[in-house]
Amino acid sequence: MSAPRAAGEAVDNPRRPTLTQVAELAGVSLKTASRALNDEPNVAEATGARVRQAADLLGYRLNGIARELRRGATSALVGLVSGDLANPFYSAVASGIERELRQHGLQLVTANTDEDAELERALVEAFLERRVRALLVVPSGDRHEYLAIEGNRGVPFVFLDRPPDGLEADAVLIDNAGGARAAGEHLLSHGHRRIALVADLARMAPQRGRLDGFVQAMDAAGNDQWRPYLRTDVHDVHRAEETVRELLTRDPPPTALFTTNNRLTTGALRALRGHPAAPALIGFDDFDLADVIGTTVVAHDPVAMGREAARLAHRRISGFGGPAQTVIIPTEVVARGSGERAPA
C-alpha cells in the first residue's frame, strides 16, 4: 500500500473520476448508476439519491455532449472559426453572436485560425465531427467547395467579414468599398493629394474591397499622387509602425494616411507620436479610446455583425431552406480631428 499523501502535496497525473467508480462507491451495478444519473425510469428513489451522492463525492460529471451524440442528436453548440480573437474586432463579433444565440438556448464555442487556411479546414472538420448545430466562419482560405457536402447534410454555414468562395452560403459583410471610398473622399475634401494607403493582406477579400474603394475615390478625383505611398501586406502593429516611419522619410512625405484596420491604425499612431508635423490620419475600424485621442475612423458595428450572423444561423436551424442571403453592415466616417488636419 502506498503511503498517504501529505496535505497540499501535488498529485501526479490526476484522472477524472469514472462511472465505474461511482457505481462501486454507491454499491450498485454500472447500468444502474448510468440509469440513475441519466434520470431514466425504474430506478428507486433511494438508489438514485445514493448514486448522485457518490457522484458528488467523487466530482463525477456527465458528458452531456457525448450523451446526446450517442442518442443520434446534434448538440446545442454553434461553432465559430475566427481569424484571431485577440483582435478586438473579432471579440466584439463573438460577443454579438453569443448574445443572440443565448436567446435560443444555443451556446457558442470558438477557435482561432491565425489566418492559416489549412488550420481553418482542420477546425471546421473538428467542429463538424462534434455535430454542431451551425458553423460560423471567418474564412482564411480562398476556396470553400469542400463545405458543400456538409451543408447538404443539414449543417448551416454563415460566413462573416469575408464572403465564401466556391460555395453558396449566408454571409454578413461590411461595406468595405463604400467605407474606404468615403475615407478617401474625406481626405481629398481637406486638400490632401499625397495620401499613403497602408493595407493588411491584399489576398483577403475585405482588404481588396477597401483598396478598391480607396482607388475609386482617387480615380474619380483625378488624383494619382497617392500611388508612390501604397503599402500592402502589412499584417500587424509592429510592421505598421515600421511602415509609417518609412513613409515619413520619403521626399516629399505623404500629407495623409489611410490605414485599413484597427491594428494598422495603432501602429500608425505609435509612429506619429511626437511627430512635429503629423500627417492626417483615418483608420478603418473604430477602437477603444479613439474618441479620447481624437482619431478619425471609418466606423461600423461588429456586435451587429455577430448578431446578424447568429440570426441567419438560427433561421437555418429552424428549417429555412431559401437561397443564400447576404447582409451588409453599413459604415460611416466619424470625424474626430486626426482626419481633418490640413496638408502641412
TrEMBL record:
Database matches in Gene3D superfamilies: 3.40.50.2300, lambda repressor-like DNA-binding domains
Superkingdom field: Bacteria
Annotated ranges, domain HTH lacI-type: 17-71
Keywords attached to this entry: DNA-binding, Transcription, Transcription regulation
Pfam families linked to this entry: LacI, Peripla_BP_3
MF terms (GO), sorted A to Z: DNA-binding transcription factor activity; transcription cis-regulatory region binding
Record's protein name: LacI family transcriptional regulator
Source species of the chain: Couchioplanes caeruleus subsp. caeruleus
